[in-house]
Structure to design on (502 residues):
């Protein structure tokens, strides 16, 4: 009987996954953790998301301020029932209905909530709550159904990939049988409601725990020679990376339980950029390589060897470095950005769309145009440091970008700062014709231009647009003078604006 089941599971990879629309493009989103000492306020977070053109986010709760800030943006939001609330919701339909009323109904449709994760890694972190997990999902879904939102908002729960045993070769994978009383009704629920299995996939940990059995290149999506690819001897499928192998292991594990049409969304995946002495491969370069390759892999709709071309949408862990997290150094360093909205490293995403615009494969800068009229440059500089809300403190006397004390030099720095603050959007490097885009880094000495370190200036929910050639704006009444005549009062006003708005 067992051998028949295994043969059936092996044959399933040849069949179409009926519930998965292969034509539907995969997406890449980000998780937003909040264990940050100087956590940006929700408006600043949304400004960063918009500047980086991130259209999908996952929250670890249903914070009302964050959901309010996301209203009207169109960003697709997955909210979460925190683990500490799971027991109460799983034991009371009324409690679940109240949670939905308080955290969902008050925000839709203005905020585009598309999924609810009921708990996170419940089976492996709070197993005492496992008996009520499926009930919690059913109660939340029933409340959505009563509000006629069940077709719009999917309900699931995020799992650690460690619930999958014997994960390689993927065709032999199965869920820990201890959890069959939970997994079987859970998968039945996901199938009947058209939802998906949420899975956290961390090749970094698989690599670290393999004691060099897994090559680093295999974990990082780096190209492997054919003789180095991992081959599933049962299916003869070739695996070029750990990520695909883990996802397919989950597909096969579901097949073993006779569920073949439940799609997978990877709710967490990433690589730490810094670690302690016991974590030598938690580096900026490896984090950059993994996340850049992951994003390209997902957005290219590559699918997996078992299901080529079938979307495996993925949320990167995570948006910010969470410096308040406890544990190893690496626990604090999974973020793409620091708390000020500056990229921890610059992703290389050419050819993968416009998401995460801090790509410097084709790095550009915004500078003063050669031969531009000095008075127009001065007016544009005044505007950038005033209504444009650029932080011009780097050009104060004694600061790194004060010298050379010329309107051209100062305007170039301000233009570039504004350009990156606005996510390099079209029309943000014009300033009535006195600015131009260049690929030459204008940084000099200790004066590092924003574009040089990938800073995208997403510190505000900016609505100001730089004056363009077609603009009738007369600019700012604030004056940021150059040539040894900088007013202390003017600088104070600029710094005050920076403190308030940036």
């Amino acid at each position: 009987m067992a051998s028949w089941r295994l043969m059936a599971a092996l044959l399933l990879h040849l069949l179409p996954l009926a519930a998965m629309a292969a034509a539907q493009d995969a997406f890449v989103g980000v998780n937003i953790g909040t264990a940050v000492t100087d956590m940006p306020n929700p408006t600043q977070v949304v400004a960063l998301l918009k500047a980086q053109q991130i259209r999908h986010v996952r929250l670890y709760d249903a914070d009302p301020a964050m959901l309010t800030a996301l209203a009207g943006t169109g960003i697709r939001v997955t909210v979460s029932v925190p683990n500490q609330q799971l027991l109460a919701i799983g034991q009371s339909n009324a409690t679940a209905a109240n949670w939905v009323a308080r955290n969902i109904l008050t925000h839709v449709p203005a905020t585009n909530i598309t999924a609810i994760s009921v708990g996170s890694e419940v089976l492996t972190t709070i197993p005492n709550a496992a008996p009520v997990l499926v009930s919690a999902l059913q109660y939340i879904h029933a409340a959505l159904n009563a509000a006629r939102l069940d077709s719009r908002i999917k309900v699931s729960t995020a799992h650690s990939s460690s619930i999958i045993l014997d994960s390689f070769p993927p065709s032999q994978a199965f869920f820990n049988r201890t959890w069959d009383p939970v997994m079987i009704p859970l998968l039945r629920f996901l199938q009947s409601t058209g939802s998906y299995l949420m899975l956290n996939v961390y090749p970094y940990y698989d690599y670290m725990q393999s004691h060099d059995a897994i090559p680093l290149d295999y974990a990082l999506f780096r190209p492997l020679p054919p003789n180095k690819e991992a081959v599933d001897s049962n299916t003869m499928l070739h695996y070029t990376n750990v990520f695909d192998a883990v996802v397919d292991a989950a597909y096969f594990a579901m097949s073993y339980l006779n569920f073949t049409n439940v799609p997978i969304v990877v709710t967490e995946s990433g690589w730490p950029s810094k670690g302690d002495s016991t974590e030598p491969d938690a580096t900026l370069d490896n984090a950059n390589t993994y996340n850049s390759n992951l994003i390209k892999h997902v957005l290219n709709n590559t699918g997996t060897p078992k299901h080529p071309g079938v979307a495996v949408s993925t949320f990167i862990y995570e948006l910010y470095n969470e410096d308040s997290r406890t544990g190893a150094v690496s626990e604090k360093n999974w973020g793409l950005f620091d708390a000020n909205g500056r990229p921890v490293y610059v992703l290389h995403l050419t050819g993968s769309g416009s998401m995460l615009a801090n790509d410097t494969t084709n790095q550009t800068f915004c500078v003063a145009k050669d031969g531009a009229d000095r008075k127009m440059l001065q007016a544009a500089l005044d505007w950038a440091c005033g209504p444009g809300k650029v932080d011009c403190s780097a050009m104060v006397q004694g600061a790194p970008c004060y010298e050379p004390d010329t309107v051209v030099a100062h305007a170039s720095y301000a233009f570039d700062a504004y350009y990156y603050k606005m996510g390099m959007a079209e029309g943000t490097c014009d300033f009535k014709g006195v600015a131009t885009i260049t690929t030459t880094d204008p940084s000099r000495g200790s004066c590092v231009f924003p574009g040089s370190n990938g800073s995208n200036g997403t510190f505000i929910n900016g609505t100001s647009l730089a004056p363009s050639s077609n603009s009738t704006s007369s600019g700012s009444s604030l004056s940021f003078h150059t040539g040894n005549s900088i007013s202390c009062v003017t600088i104070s006003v600029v710094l005050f604006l920076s403190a308030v708005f940036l």
